[in-house]
Amino acid sequence: MRKHSSGSSEDDDVSLVEPPTDASLRLHAEEPRLSAKPATKLDRRRSLDRRPSFSVSRRSSSANWRSPESRNGQGEKLPAAGRTAPSSPLGLILAPTGELQPKGTKKAPETRLAGRRPQWRSPWAVGVLGLLTSIVGLGFLLTVLHSSVTRQLDPKGCRMSYMRPSYAKLNEFDTEHTRLASKYSLYLYREQGVDHDTKVRGVPVLFIPGNAGSYKQVRPIAAEAANYFHDVLQHDEAALKAGARALDFFTVDFNEDITAFHGQTLLDQAEYLNEAIRYILSLYLDPRVSDRDPDLPDPTSVIVLGHSMGGIVARTMLTMPNYQANSINTIVTMSAPHARPPVSFDRQIVKTYDDINGYWRQAYSQQWANDNPLWHVTLVSIAGGGLDTVVPSDYASVESLVPDTHGFTVFTSTIPAVWTSMDHQAILWCDQFRKVIAHAIYEVVDVHRATQTKPRAERMRVFKKWFLTGMEAVAEKTAPRSDPTTLLTVADNADSIIAEGERLVLRSLGSAGAVRAHLLPIPPSGSPDGKRFTFLTDAKLDKPGENGKLEVLFCSVIPSQPSQSWAGFSSQIDLSRGATGTTRLACRSAGPDVVSLPASTRSTRYPFFTDREREITPFSYLEYGVDDIAEHQFVAIVEKATSPTPGFVIAEFSDHSRSHWTENIDLRRLLTSGLKLRLPAERPMVSKIKVPSLQSSLLAYNLRISQQGCDGQEELFAPLARQYLAEPYESKYFVNAREVAVSLHGVAPYVPPPLARKLEDDGLGFQFWTDPTCNSNIQVELTVDVLGSLGKLYMRYRTVFAAFPLFVVALVLRKQFQLYDATGLFIPFSESLEMSLRRSIPLMLASLTLLTFSTAGSSTAGNARLWRWRDDASSIIDFRKNDLLIGTQEPMFLFLIPLIGIICVGVCTAVHYMALILTHLLSALASLLTFRPGWIRNEDRRKLAPVFWCPSPRRRMLTTAVLLLLVSTVVPYQFAYLVACLVQLMTTVRAQRIASDLRSAANSNFYNYAHSILILMLWILPINLPTFVVWVHNLAVHWLTPFTSHHNVLSVMPFVVLVETLTTGKMIPRVASRLKHVTSLLLFCTAVYAAVYGVSYAYTLHYLANLLAFWLAILHSSSDSWSLAGLSHLYAGDADGRKRGKEP
């Protein structure tokens, strides 16, 4: 191999690999001898290791080492003295130092002495600052993960469900109806033992499975619906008259398609389902398959149930061109991420979400119903809560999409008789939940209408009755305004009237041995204290027509009139017992407004009961404002039990001022000192505390309630606590409450703001039911659970690790290129990270924190969509204000920016060392497979030195062209990117072998460069893998139709060209001109974008990295001279060269 002088113009042909040469041996022979003793093999090896490397420091860093003879056997032609170095496409020339400079630039000064060997830098070395920062970051990460699985966990309370499923495939729904029939299938569910044929005769319901879901997931709800109608409804004349009929459940087999990662798959499913609905409705017109009552109207719409991404597909259907108008008017979704996509790795799914949500918001922003295509549609989103670790339940919110007149969000822990959180799959099979779903659907059904459902307002009323607690502000009280059903007759001189202001307390029922009534006078409305009526019992309250143990009535005195008929009352209760003076009361039953509360005793632990526990009868609770019952004179509590029966009753009128407290405490004060409150001994049965500042989902709290003393008297019930949010509707109950873990789904990162402005006093509320007969104070203390709050960061910020680490990697690469262009040394990744931690990373994190603080509360109108809600100038909403950085503008959470940065530094360090371990293991494996005798002479070491096998340029061009052709036609570009990552891994392994066997600055430079490019590509890989998985899944189900997206060759060609260039071992040349700032600027912009927009638009990070690869490929090509003759030489093969074979 020819040794060039420091001023040679052929530095671009110098090898990265430097095997010992005869010239170098002669050079060492001329050095002053340290001893007259003949050199041994060990001495010769040491002398080689001490050889001067001034020739390396002057060279460009081409890694394509060749022997003195070229491939065609000709010797290399030396340049004539004074010959100009070849120019590049950028108008640059290669300087003697290996730098790219513009033509005419003077020789750059040397940065170090020619005879000085550069210090070997180990890629394993790490500085003190980098080590400490990484340990702290990984420590924080482990703390977050540990907290997420050990603290602030909701208890699991689902009971198992059982069914006898069968599925009838509708084969006639084939490719004549839709092009997607060869990929998807439609089924009709039938419950064995209940449904005896496959004819449709009821109300059509379509179930849509979610991401990678199965069509068989319909069976729990469908089985409950079939059994409920078979056992109950078909024998209920009133229900049949109201329009109840059996439900025909249809379900779709999507072959477990992955819709969460691929927008086109989501659109394909929506297109297929619209055609499926058209076909389903046609079945009811076909007498061969329909057994429907001919007197009923033909169905024109279908009720839709969607799980997970199936709920998004349901909403997408209404925006598709093939949607049949008014064919969907009721949508119930379970654990569906409505607010934003679960991940933003695919450009099309982000755009699809924007289009869908924009369509729904635009529709409901219309002032007139005729202009709203969704006016008849109701949307109910049910979230699983804290146990759902697949999709953050914050994303299930629809408050930013539909007004409260058309939909709402509710959590399963809120639903009466459910009272438990659920994981992503349990929400489908949970027994107590599926019963509520089936019963609610039956109540909105009306087969006497062509739509098969009741009007929108009535549907919303039904859903609120079944899914909400009944204590919300929107809950309707129907009992006071219903028709009188009971005639109550009492004696005038009876002692059953409770004095005004007194509390009714019954420790048992039926102690009088006869039916008796307790009358509480209703105070006049408009009192300044705002009185309200509350009632609590552990017995079941009767509804109109029932004859149980207890009933509550709202009664008005009937003026006495001669010959008046009482036949209009369905029930009459005469308690006069033959008294001469009587009073007749027309009463309305409060039964329809009863609120179920979980029973709270000293023996209960959870608000629910599991499969192995006995059923617990819930408490019955009533609450009315005086204005709601002002048209009545008495509240009558009627004891129907005639023998002593266990049970208690507490009823009272209380002042609002004595039972409601609003604590205006800010979060900083709550963090430092907590909130302490004393409930006085003379307190009402129910107390409410509102803390408006508690709205964030990122904080968790601990609530402590002191034990009440009853002075030796047995307490009627243990303290019962409820935490609640007004929007979305989330309530959690805590029975036998003493120490309570409080977490909520309120204002969450990256979730758009609601359509309706929140009230100033909106926030977390607490409601306490305590035994008022225990004359003792109760201390309530609320503190922030710091460790528990860290666990809440996992679900809200786990997608950060797809974007924010690229912020660190880009800054590290930027420092590497800056030092390389300045000194000629490409330092290791860990050393560059150490330098970046001393300046660039802290400065960037501080700048991002200040940027967030300065923009908090201000509208980003330049880059957001502003909506004018129903032409109200004061209701302009920016739905994208939470898309940036950490997804919240709350100043208190600004510490999350440096915290996430530190964690990502630790994660990047971990990935760096894992990549080092992987490359070293592969290198060691390659060494084992390569035979190398241990007795070989040192002079012959160069013959077995690992070198880069360089394929011919023609082969490289053909390989690249074939790969790009496949991308443009068959495979997505994500496949080519995965191939590029594997090739880059092999290149890094070969570079590591060379750098470890022959230590030199050039070898170290190329290995560090290849390793850093590999780290960059590894962090981009998770963005591309989901689409690749979708493509592989389509191949597995024999769906060979290419994607309509992801075939842009420009999206991956720079990566392919760069990786192919690196396989030759060519080091990127140094740039001494102003063009070196282009590399720095590209990496800086990538870092900023990854931090600011990376979470919401992660797919763009691939494009930014692709742009960087394009620039690096240009720099590589700038070290070569291009000509038409050179291109033609690629295809003018040489026979002698082919016969000789390949040489290094």
Topology:
Layout: H1 22-29, H2 41-49, H3 54-58, E1 92-94, E2 99-102, H4 128-150, E3 165-169, E4 185-191, E5 203-208, H5 219-231, H6 237-241, E6 247-253, H7 263-283, E7 302-307, H8 309-317, E8 328-334, H9 347-364, E9 378-383, E10 407-411, H10 426-429, H11 431-444, H12 456-467, E11 486-491, E12 504-509, E13 516-521, E14 532-537, E15 550-557, E16 571-575, E17 582-589, E18 595-597, E19 619-625, E20 634-639, E21 645-654, H13 656-659, E22 660-662, H14 667-673, E23 675-679, E24 686-691, E25 701-705, E26 720-725, E27 730-734, E28 739-742, E29 764-769, E30 778-784, H15 786-797, H16 804-823, H17 829-838, H18 840-855, E31 866-868, E32 876-878, H19 896-929, H20 953-969, H21 973-997, H22 1001-1036, H23 1053-1063, E33 1070-1071, H24 1076-1092, H25 1099-1117, H26 1124-1129, H27 1135-1140
Parallel strand pairs: 2-33, 5-6, 5-7, 7-8, 8-9, 9-10, 11-16, 22-24
Antiparallel strand pairs: 1-2, 3-4, 4-6, 11-17, 12-21, 13-20, 14-19, 14-21, 15-17, 15-20, 18-19, 23-30, 24-29, 25-28, 25-30, 26-27, 26-29, 31-32
Helix pairs in contact: 4-15, 4-17, 4-19, 5-11, 7-8, 7-9, 11-12, 16-17, 16-19, 16-22, 16-24, 19-21, 21-22, 21-23, 22-25, 23-25, 24-25
Organism: Thermothielavioides terrestris (strain ATCC 38088 / NRRL 8126) (Thielavia terrestris)
Subcellular location: Endoplasmic reticulum membrane
Membrane topology: Multi-pass membrane protein
